[in-house]
Specification:
Blueprint (H helix, E strand, L loop, with lengths): L3 E3 L4 E6 L2 E6 L1 H7 L2 E5 L6 E2 L4 E7 L3 E5 L4 E6 L2 H4 L3 H4 L8 E5 L10 H9 L2
Antiparallel strand pairs: 1-2, 2-3, 3-9, 4-6, 5-8, 6-7, 8-9
Length: about 120
């Protein structure tokens, strides 16, 4: 399994064989509170790096999830349509949002787990 990487916007990326699975971190879901609705990108949607890809709504707020990389959506977590609370229960696993086939994968701008922990400590 490849190393998990993180963005400053509290998304995680798992990169394996040219596919990038993306979700939100525990920190992000804790800030949102109880998730009640998740809008995911359409399969085969082409996303640019930084494009809005998903919307996560909670009882407190709504937040957008931007695609950290450019690519084509090859899978979405359809479980979230009927069970959005999965994000609260397992944001780092079963609560993944979507998977991209990335055009190019450059990881320099992302943080490893230790760097992300230090980033959170500074917030």
């Amino acid at each position: 399994m490849s190393e998990r990487l993180f963005t400053r916007e509290h998304e995680w990326l798992q990169i394996e064989e040219g596919l990038v699975t993306i979700g939100i971190t525990d920190y992000a879901q804790e800030q949102l509170g109880d998730v009640v609705y998740v809008e995911l990108p359409a399969p085969d949607a082409e996303l640019g790096a930084g494009d809005e890809a998903a919307v996560v709504e909670s009882v407190k707020a709504a937040g957008t999830v931007n695609s950290p990389l450019a690519g084509v959506v090859v899978a979405v977590n359809e479980t979230l349509a009927d069970a959005p609370e999965t994000l609260n229960e397992d944001a780092d696993g079963a609560g993944w949002l979507f998977t991209l086939r990335a055009e190019t994968i450059q990881t320099e701008e992302f943080m490893n787990e230790e760097a992300y922990r230090q980033y959170l400590a500074g917030l």
